[in-house]
Design goal:
Length: about 375
């Protein structure tokens, strides 16, 4: 086995019931090939002018154009985006295999990925959603886990196509283990596909630790929002909590505020997982990459020991300081983490194992997802 650094990421540390890492987005979606943008090829763009240069227009490519345009309407000109178009006949499972090329062509820099297939109207509906979606969730979770081991981690937002409109039909993803995948089942036009371009644009312009549901970032949609069954968001107002409890993301309103906001950034896994939200997962991905870059400098270096074979204290202090400083400078000071701490036990059998164990403890930011207020009249404000 060649020398390498292996991260064993703790999944329940929160006890819940070099350079900075850029959050580069990618999208794989249905489209029509052009002379400059063939089906199955990867493209890097920074604006809708770049999309137009590839021959992708509203007239010849309405579906792909719509979602790419919504990405830039939200992310703004200058945002880097990698995308690939696939044919109408491509299933989500087949998209997963195409993603290998997209991620590799992007140099493994894609951190957040959108998956979007145009609904054809002939698909079978299983557990309330186009049955191909669930297969795509399983496949892309496996692919994401595979690439994470290669230090190319990414998280996914997939379109929950053609919801049946029956809450009872929906699969309960809070019983699953797909902690790298989020499913959006809402849009701005009443179509059977979710607004993936819009969601990716929001994720591209906010920092890794931020939830797409943050109200201060403004509404995502101005006029009207729908579920992917074509019904208006307001038609299910009394059932929002029930849909949310199953792990799905959609849009909601607030009394006294105009527009529609994302409900949350849940991933398709149990709520007590440390990675039950996209934000927590993206922060961990960045921390792993920062620490890996810091520690790679030390790989295969000599480690002095004392007479008892223990690691020399000076080495411990140096290694701990280096990785802590990188995490603090690049993540804590940027408010992506509250704190970071490295620990190396001096009593390790480095002489016979050639293995150095390091513990990194990260304290994430918290989220005000529930605000409880006590309110009432009083006769005395001095108490």
């Amino acid at each position: 086995m060649i020398p390498k650094i292996i991260f064993d990421i703790a999944e329940n540390g929160l006890s819940l019931s070099g350079d900075g890492v850029q959050k580069v987005p990618g999208i794989i979606l249905t489209g029509v090939g052009t002379d400059d943008a063939a089906i199955g090829t990867s493209h890097q763009v920074f604006s809708m002018d770049g999309v137009a240069d590839l021959g992708i227009t509203q007239e010849n490519n309405p579906f792909a154009f719509k979602h790419l345009n919504e990405f830039y309407s939200e992310a703004g000109t200058g945002a880097e985006l990698w995308f690939m178009m696939v044919s109408d006949a491509t299933t989500y499972e087949q998209m997963v295999e195409e993603l290998r090329k997209l991620i590799s062509d992007a140099g493994g820099r894609i951190r957040i990925l959108g998956m979007l297939k145009k609904h054809q109207g002939t698909e079978s509906i299983t557990e309330g959603i186009d049955q191909d979606v669930k297969a795509g969730v399983i496949g892309v979770q496996s692919l994401a886990e595979e690439f994470a081991k290669l230090y190319m981690p990414f998280r996914v937002v997939i379109s929950g196509n053609a919801w049946s409109g029956q809450i009872a039909d929906l699969f309960d993803y809070r019983t699953a283990e797909y902690d790298r995948v989020n499913m959006l089942i809402a849009n701005n036009d009443g179509s059977p596909e979710a607004s993936i371009g819009l969601a990716m644009g929001r994720l591209a312009r906010i920092p890794v630790q931020r939830s797409i549901a943050r109200v201060k970032d403004g509404s995502a949609i101005d006029l009207q929002a729908y579920f992917t069954d074509g019904s208006k968001i307001e038609d299910f107002t009394d059932s929002w909590d029930a849909i949310d409890a199953l792990g799905y993301t959609f849009f909601r309103t607030f009394t006294g505020r105009s527009g529609y906001y994302f409900t949350d950034d849940k991933t398709l896994c149990k709520s007590d997982s440390d990675f039950s939200s996209l934000a927590r997962g993206l922060v961990m991905d960045e921390a792993v990459l920062v620490a890996n870059n810091s520690l790679t400098e030390e790989l295969s270096d000599e480690i002095p020991v004392d007479g008892n074979g223990n690691i020399h204290p000076a080495i411990i202090k140096s290694w701990q300081s280096n990785v802590e400083n990188d995490l603090i400078n690049l993540m804590v000071n940027a408010l992506k983490l509250n704190g970071a701490e490295a620990f190396i036990d001096t009593n390790q059998d480095i002489l016979t194992t050639d293995t150095l164990a390091i513990t990194l403890r990260l304290q994430p930011v918290g989220y005000a997802k529930q605000i409880e207020v006590k309110i009432g009249y009083t006769t005395n404000l001095q108490q």
